[in-house]
Amino acid sequence: MSTFRPVLVLLPVLALAACAATPARDAVSRPEAVTAAYHGDAARPAQALDWVRTELYFAAGEWDAAPAAAEAAEQRWLDFLDREVTPRFPEGLSVIDAYGQWLPPGASVPTRLRSKELVIQHPDTPERHEAIEAIRLAWKRETGHRSVLRSRLRADVSF
User: According to the model, what pLDDT value does residue 63 have?
Assistant: First the structure.
């Protein structure tokens, strides 16, 4: 029995080592196993040229708003996101909480705002541009704001 004890102790260690080495071995023998998780998925290509990174900036409430008003503004944003943005870009997007300020015409002090930066990576197509404009228009209609800043950058992406 004592001869088998070292073998019994080493057996699980060797099995774990073999499992840990498998992904590395796969990566060498089949590089696509690591890089091609979404191959064949047009919404998330392995490599896509001529895509666009669109950033939209939304004023989402006064910077120094009372907690209840800040909560209401956050809920309004989440409702808008669910209703207007996600259905148009279900493949994915990012929202970044931001601080913003602007100087209204005739003012001497900037207005400070809680802001949302919406970032969407998407193919450069007329349909996607229309969807972006629909989102901007919907926010302006809903809030009465004059603008939603849009920034558009060329992007080469991969997933």
Answer: 86
**Per-residue H/E/C for the chain:** CCCHHHHHHHHHHHHHHHHHHHHHHHHHHCCHHHHCCCCCCCCCCCCEEEEEEEEEEEEEEECCCCHHHHHHHHHHHHHHHHHHHCCCCCCCCEEEEEEEEECCCCCCCCEEEEEEEEEEEEECCHHHHHHHHHHHHHHHHHHCCCCCEEEEEEEEECC
pLDDT at 102 over 90: no
User: Does residue 132 or residue 34 have the better pLDDT?
Assistant: 132
- This prediction has a pTM of 0.71
**Domain 48-157 CATH (choose: 3.30.2000.10, 3.30.70.120, 3.30.1300.10, 3.40.50.740):** 3.30.70.120
Task: Map out the domains of the chain as residue ranges.
Answer: 4-35, 48-157
